[in-house]
Amino acid sequence: MRAMVTSGTGPGAPGRAGVPQVLSVANLRKAYGDKAAVDGVSFEVKRGEIVGLLGPNGAGKTTTINMVLGVLEPTAGTIHIERLNLAAQRSAALELTNFAAVYSPLPGNLSVYQNLRVFGLIYGVKDLGARIAELLEQFDLVEYRDVKCGVLSSGEQTRVALAKAMLNRPHLLLLDEPTASLDPATARDLRARIREFAAQGTGGVLWTSHNMYEVEEVCDRVLFLSHGKVLLEGDPRSLPREHGQPSLEELFITVAREPLALERS
Ligand code: ATP
Question: Which atom of ligand 1 is least distant from the CA of 55?
Answer without folding.
Answer: 6
